[in-house]
Amino acid sequence: MDMSYTSLEQLPPNRRVTFDEDPEIALYLPENDTKDPELSIVIPAMNEEAVMELFIEWCHEGINKAGVAAEILIVDSSSDRSPLIALEGGARVLKTPKRGLGQAYRDAIQVIRGKYIIMGDADCTYDFREISPFMERFREGYEFILGSRFKGSIEDGSMPALHRYFGTPFTTWILNTIYGSDFSDIHCGMRGITLDALKRIRLHSRSWEYASEMVIKSVRVGLRRVEVPVHFYKDRDGRESHHRRMGWFSPWHAGWINLRAMLIYGADFFVLRPGSVLFALGLLATLLLALGPVSLGGVTLSLNSQFLAMIAAVAGLQGLMSGAIAQILFEPTGESARRWLGRLPYTRTMIGVGIVFSIGVMLCINFVWSFVNAGYTVVDAMARDNHLAVLGLTMMILSFTVFIGTLLIHAVAARTLTGSPDADAR
Fold first, then answer.
1. What is the pLDDT of residue 349?
2. pLDDT at residue number 167
3. What pTM was computed for the model?
4. Which fold has domain 8-265?
5. Most exposed residue of 177, 215, 229, 402, measured as fewest CB within 10 angstroms of its CB?
6. Residue range 70-93: average pLDDT?
7. At 194, is the secondary structure helix, strand, or coil?
């Protein structure tokens, strides 16, 4: 590249590609562009002039060792010479506004040419001279490959002790518990994913939380995934990390929004299974007390106990329905939507709801009839009617909850699936 250029805009028109759908971004091509790459190394960068040349050299060394045709794509929002250095080193540069790491990867999807993608940082903290393990796993059929610093190596001074011994292990444990996964280092920035899988998971995050969203959706979508050891180094002399540039609060903010992503995308974990258990226990207790008080080990369970059981059943069913909706919203393949539509087919569910609600009304009418005949007074002789009335009230509330939940599930599924589900066919 002719270093007489001092800005990207001075490059010849044939080295610049613009996009009508997003005029804020432009793709700049190196003089010796790679043809038909199998691998794309996709790296967001902002003001990495101090290390960009070395990083590009590392990438080329890793590409040569792996024996793969690869492109280097720098998604750049710098105000320094980083993009010019990257172009000189043979990388493509996608120039974008500063709008977050997650958005950088979303912007890049339209220009990625490789079947496989390796992601990371341009700061030489991850060793891109060692990409062979990623390519080996890709060729074995894995779709998502997460680097693990804990299975590889962590240079002294590269990671604060609080992050290394508490923050990363603790948040990794939280994610594994919620999603039933077995990752060892969910915050590792060096990772691989197929282009097809990246499109399927539909990243929504714009900032740091993209990292957790990607890991979570690799589980949600059912990608074939594996971890590989990676080496993590401290910042090079003359280079300061983005967190340090942004102030002491930046890593805490990044951790918080990643935790938020884990909890939001795993909302069903907190309501679906607990709700199912609470619903089953509450309904069972309500039915056992339907004919009157029950004595267990010297303790008599009566009307108050049945009301408590009714509340448990109603709260549990509401949690179950909320969990179903959360699953549909956060499972990008549509499999959860199809599964819940199969469990709650519209016509049969509405008929069942109508029958259960009608039986509940009749049980309550019987109580009202007995109440009137007793001179508008609840007497001991009405104990069985009282308990049956609570059962009837429970049936009415539960059936109405299923009615509303079914409508919402079908409405959300209609937005999630390609095309609206045909209610008449169900």
1. 97
2. 86
3. 0.77
4. Spore Coat Polysaccharide Biosynthesis Protein SpsA; Chain A (3.90.550)
5. 177
6. 95
7. strand
